[in-house]
Amino acid sequence: xxxxxxxxxxxxxxxxxxxxxxxxxxxxxxxxxELLLEAIRESGVKDLTFASNNAGVDDFGxxxxxxxxxxxxxxxSYVGENAEFMRQYLSGELELEFNPQGTLAERMRAGGAGIPxxxxxxxxxxxxxxxxxxxxFNGETYILEEGIFADLAIVKAWKADDTGNLVFRKTARNFxxxxxxxxxxxxxxxxxxxxxGALDPDCIHLPGIYVHRIVQGKHEKRIEQRTTRKxxxx
Length: 234
Fold this sequence. Notes:
Largest sheet: 9 strands, mixed
Order of helices and strands: EHEHEHEHEHEEEEEHEE
Shape: globular
Helix content: 10-25%
Number of strands: 12
Strand content: 25-35%
Radius of gyration: 18 Å
Number of helices: 6
Distance between the termini: 55 Å
């Protein structure tokens, strides 16, 4: 089975459609599948729902799809760094399903494990719990959260072999692993494709059985918030 594709556009050929649910890895600007997001923008698909920790910034990450109004709904934890995200939400142009970060990660993980739902105490007594089933266990109240089963997962990894085994670099593991597992199809962009057998099995973060397509490319490594000391204080 061929898994390696020449570019992001080819890697997404035949898998994109209007109205689909996409799970995207990344946290802030760390480990986001930027090449695949650009290819989605160029494809013109619309009415998309994204399950992602956030939407990047205005001109990078999922933010580029908000600019073109291709996103209908976000399932997210954080909106603070993206002014267009906030504007569209506050103006009613964009649907938003808030999730605590741990709940969102577990919803993805649950979907990848075939688990339709789970109970958690996180969010009890807040707007997060509105409309959700409540159940008591040992005197404590929990709410039912549903697993995320995405039509497509897009992730960014450091290294891969041609069978799809992935290694993520440090913080870039973040949401990439659970996002990858919960998609019916998973497409990964990587910095380097190494020969089969070159990866230490103990260092593989995601087995290739979860990954259907791979594309190698050059990536822009932005810093979301650069904080440095003033020269006179150094």
